[in-house]
From TrEMBL:
<dbReference type="InterPro" id="IPR015946">
    <property type="entry name" value="KH_dom-like_a/b"/>
</dbReference>
<dbReference type="InterPro" id="IPR003718">
    <property type="entry name" value="OsmC/Ohr_fam"/>
</dbReference>
<dbReference type="InterPro" id="IPR052707">
    <property type="entry name" value="OsmC_Ohr_Peroxiredoxin"/>
</dbReference>
<protein>
    <submittedName>
        <fullName>Osmotically inducible protein OsmC</fullName>
    </submittedName>
</protein>
<feature type="region of interest" description="Disordered">
    <location>
        <begin position="1"/>
        <end position="47"/>
    </location>
</feature>
<dbReference type="InterPro" id="IPR019904">
    <property type="entry name" value="Peroxiredoxin_OsmC"/>
</dbReference>
<dbReference type="GO" id="GO:0004601">
    <property type="term" value="F:peroxidase activity"/>
</dbReference>
<dbReference type="InterPro" id="IPR036102">
    <property type="entry name" value="OsmC/Ohrsf"/>
</dbReference>
<dbReference type="GO" id="GO:0006979">
    <property type="term" value="P:response to oxidative stress"/>
</dbReference>
<feature type="compositionally biased region" description="Polar residues">
    <location>
        <begin position="1"/>
        <end position="25"/>
    </location>
</feature>
<dbReference type="Pfam" id="PF02566">
    <property type="entry name" value="OsmC"/>
</dbReference>
């Protein structure tokens, strides 16, 4: 298959340091990162949790579209958001949950077909699989 790469350059300590994450494989850009962007307002910076949310929402949308297509229902639109929660765990921080919300327009699909595909996509999407052990919730609906 394919490998994908990103690089982060960090300067300083955890609390006041800053860094830049570069999406190397796609050359899609460089993004500033900082610890305060993880626990306070982002102020134009990203965080590992936001990058996980982006990865999860895009992976899930693709997986759901594929499953619906296999059942003969090509989606007109799939909009997925992922909310990644960072909280205290033991002596440090951990991702304590991810909430997926999907709204889709799928001509010809009934609610049962859509819900089954939505649940299965949550289970088999590669990013969901990589996050095994994290509580992932799903709110899926047809529009």
């Amino acid at each position: 298959m394919a490998d994908r790469n990103a690089t982060t350059s960090w300067s300083g300590d955890l609390a006041s340091g800053t860094g830049t994450v570069t999406l190397d494989s796609s050359d899609a850009g460089r993004f500033p990162v900082s610890f305060p962007a993880r626990t306070e307002e982002p102020n134009g910076q990203t965080s590992p949790e936001e990058l996980i949310a982006a990865a999860h929402s895009s992976c899930y949308s693709m997986q759901l579209s594929g499953l619906l297509g296999e059942s003969g229902h090509t989606p007109q639109r799939v909009d997925t958001s992922a909310e990644v929660t960072l909280g205290k765990s033991g002596d440090g921080l951990a991702i304590t949950g991810i909430a997926l919300t999907v709204r889709a327009s799928v001509p010809g699909a009934d609610s049962a077909t859509f819900q089954e595909a939505a649940r299965k996509a949550k289970e088999i999407c590669p990013v969901s699989a990589a996050l095994t052990g994290t509580t992932i919730t799903l709110d899926a609906a047809l529009e």
